Amino acid sequence: MKIYYKIIALIFCVLLYSCKNKEVEKLNIETNSLPDQATLKSSLANLSNLGTVEYSLSKIISASDDQWYSVGSRKALMSCKANVIAGVDFAKIQISALNQKEKSVSIIMPPAQVILLDIPPAGFKIISVDEGMFRAKFTAQELNHTQQLAQKDIEQKIANLNILDDAKANASRFLHSWLKSLGFKVINIS
Amino acid sequence: MDTIKMLIVGTVLLILTGLTLFFFRDQLFDFSNPMATKEIQIAETPLILDNVKEMAELFSAAYYSEIVLDTTRTDKGYIFNTKNQIIIIAGGISHAGTDLSKLNNGNIQITDSSCSVILPNAEIIRTTANPSDFLIFKEEGKWDPKEVQKLKVVCQQKLQENAVKSDLIARANKRSISLFTDLLKGLGFKKINVEIK
Lengths: 190, 197
Hints:
The structure holds 2 protein chains of 2 kinds.
Chain A: H1 2-18, E1 23-24, E2 28-33, E3 43-64, E4 74-89, E5 94-99, E6 104-108, E7 113-118, E8 125-131, H2 140-158, H3 163-181, E9 186-189
Chain B: H1 2-23, H2 25-28, E1 41-42, E2 47-76, E3 81-99, E4 108-111, E5 114-119, E6 123-128, E7 134-140, H3 145-165, H4 168-186, E8 191-196
Parallel strand pairs in B: 5-8
Antiparallel strand pairs in B: 2-3, 3-6, 3-7, 4-5
């Protein structure tokens, strides 16, 4: 009878060992571009933003979902890089006064705004992923959700940066220099 | 008689207490499951400013597209092979425009009321695909987080390729010409010529 147990245990071990990865085949990537399909969004749009300043930012992301009853912890540590570009709406620049004889011009500049926030996938670095023995591994979906939380946090914190003031100052400087090259001698920007 | 009064007052108080507890139960008690799975949370960390760059880019056109990246990988075992598959849906915006910092006095010619400006050719400034633009549609088998991140980079490259294939650059050039023409008209120039280098 004991010999049967031994045989079963041996088969079990062989099966378990067979699950071990011997080699990994090359990734087979297929991309299907959806815009060709009529139902999905793909669009070209006109813009009119003059980007005048770019902030390069970085952030450490420490994520976990530990609870008081969890057996073992599950933590992920990542770093990310982000770029924010701010500027003014070029189409909304108003000429309030113009005197061609005196070569003077007065311009009203629209308020500065954030044009885009770019958190490139290449800017994410996975520093450490620590999953306890009794905890499930982080799924790609969970880690994507973590990155989305980081994005929200960055979006909220952008307001505390002085980027809009810098954007306004740079836009004013650019317009001043450009109007000068057009021959204007007295330039007022407000 | 006093006992009856006490009983009536006591009953009214009891009913009022009962009604208060019933109507304000959500505010007073937390009936949520203490054993429920907690969502992943991120710790409060500062946002560090690494660099500030002055620029003068006229963002004149944008192209939005969505792609599906279907990736399979086979892990060979000694007896069984395991198939891993991940499907990522990614959307992204490519911004194109004119780099106005390349404008110099040589590009601008003024004679009386006529003005001629030569703008540099538009280019794709960047393609943004932020975490909120990605959706992990299907995930089967084992995927290393670093591997998934590399696939997201591939998605971003594909999105940019789509933008290059589209009419984005031509659209951006056209829009830049139109914006400059309008501004120069407002500045009192009668004869305006805006061209692309």
